[in-house]
Each structure stands twice: as C-alpha cells, then as structure tokens.
Amino acid sequence: MDLGISGKWALVCGASKGLGLGCARALVREGVNVVINARGGETLQAAASKLMADRAGPTRASVLFVPADITTPEGRAAVFAAPGGPGRDFDIVVTNAGGPPPGDFRDWDRDAWIRAVDANMLTPIELIQATVDGMAARGFGRIVNITSSSVKAPIDILGLSNGARSGLTGFVAGVARSKLAARGVTLNNLLPGVFDTDRIKNMARRTSEQTGQPIEVILHARVKNIPAQRFGTPDEFGAICAFLCSTHAAYITGQNVLADGGAYPGTF
C-alpha cells in the first residue's frame, strides 16, 4: 500500500533507538524525509546511518539528525534550525520522550513532577504549537504522540507517567476536534504496551536487583500476561505510526490507538 506521504518532512523525537527509531524507519521506507532527534549524539548518528542504509525507492529520502534535549527551548530551536531541514514546516511530527522513572508516589517531590510534566506533556504541546498552523495552511498535517498503555490502564509504580501523559491525552482530545480537523490536520496518540526495547529490559533489571529474581524469569512473567504471548517489536509499532501519518488515515483524529498484544482487558 502506498501511504501517500513520500517527499513529506517528518520530525521524529527520541529516535536514536526503540520505538522512536522504529517510527523513523517506517517513515523513511515510505520515502519521507526525516529529522531525527535524541540527546545522545553518538547513538543518534549511528541511528541516522542505519536509516540512510535502509532507504528504499527512487526518492532516497533525506535523513538529518540533531542531537539535542527536545524538552528545552534551545533543543527545539536546534531542531527547527537543522541545516537542510524544513524549519518549522514539518508535515509530520512524532513526539516521544523517555518515560519518568517508576517508584512510590510518596518519594516524588515537586521537582520530579515538574520534570515529568515538562517532558511528557508540555514538550509535545510546544511542538504542536510550533507546527500545526503551518500544517493547516498547507492542508496536510499529522501529529502522533507516543504515550503509554498506562493512559488506559494506569500502573501503580508509574504514577509520574500516568499523570503527565494523561494530561497530554486530555489536551490532544480537545485540539484534535478544533478547526484543525477540517484543514487536513490530525492529532492522535499511539499507546505502546510492552515492547522489546531497552526500557523494558532496564525495568526488569531494576526488579531483579530488588527481588533477586533472574531477569529472564521476570521477562517471562511479563510475556505470560500478554495474550499474544510475546513482546511487540519496534518495527510493528513503526508501521502503525506510519499508517496514522498516511493519507489513508485522514478520517482518524483525536484517538488513542492501543498496541499491546491484547493485554488491556477492557471492552472500550
């Protein structure tokens, strides 16, 4: 299926590895020019090299990388000023930031909450503010926010994430149904369950240190609670993201798309 987005420009945040890289890879394979961003320069450059090697088709999409902290005004300015990039005239924006650390809510002070809200709510809003009016003027735009399955089924030890990402979800629900919808701009949230990424491995390692259980046992227990009986892959996630960015998804906006192998037990 031709997704109809070859030649468009996309900003993909948190794209040095994991789900962000999976999204960038899927877009590049569709001929989308991408600016990828993450804080780690070496890892990001390596990701850009992989993407350039993975380009397909006659368009040979451009791949630019900007190592910067997207949660800061300086980081956002650097992304918008990328040499050879589109400035603020992105057609597609995929927001993504690493989740806040797990823990007991009794241990989180105000600064911890501010960091979580800044990274997982306010930064996506800043990127939306900076790009959607240009999208509307051109008659096409796609915003995809990578959030979390915890938006639908909160996880007790992920209170920082539950709170910050739920705030973004409420904001997007309103903006997606504004006049932007009639001007070809869609805003959706993509909610990952458990995927085979460094984050799940790091959380398993932390649990192992606390309980003494082997990491393999902890990961196996997670898999047993997923009807699909496996973790998702970044490429699967990226394919969903690319579809939401496509011309075929023009009638989908304001939605929370859950990708979790059937783990969420609810009907709605």
Walk me through this protein's architecture.
Helices cover 43% and strands 14% of the residues. The chain is of the alpha/beta class and 268 residues long. It has two domains: 9-193 and 233-259, Rossmann fold, CATH 3.40.50.720; 196-231, no CATH class. A seven-stranded parallel sheet has the order 3-2-1-4-5-6-7, sandwiched between helices. β1, α1 and β2 form a beta-alpha-beta unit. α1 crosses α8, α4 packs parallel to α5 (159-175) and α6 (198-211) crosses α7. The longest helix has 29 residues, at 110-138. The mean pLDDT is 94.
Note the topology.
Layout: E1 9-13, H1 18-29, E2 33-38, H2 41-53, E3 63-67, H3 73-80, E4 92-95, H4 110-138, E5 141-146, H5 159-175, E6 185-192, H6 198-211, H7 215-224, H8 234-244, E7 256-259
Parallel strand pairs: 1-2, 1-4, 2-3, 4-5, 5-6, 6-7
Helix pairs in contact: 1-8, 4-5, 6-7
The CATH class of the largest domain is identified as Alpha Beta
* Rounded radius of gyration (Å): 18 Å
> Strand fraction band?
5-15%
Secondary structural class: alpha/beta
Could you name the key traits of this structure?
268 residues; globular; alpha/beta; Rossmann fold; 2 domains; 7-stranded parallel beta sheet
Kindly summarize this structure in a few lines.
With 268 residues, the chain is α/β, with parallel strands linked by helices. The chain is built from 8 helices and 7 strands, in the order βαβαβαβαβαβαααβ.
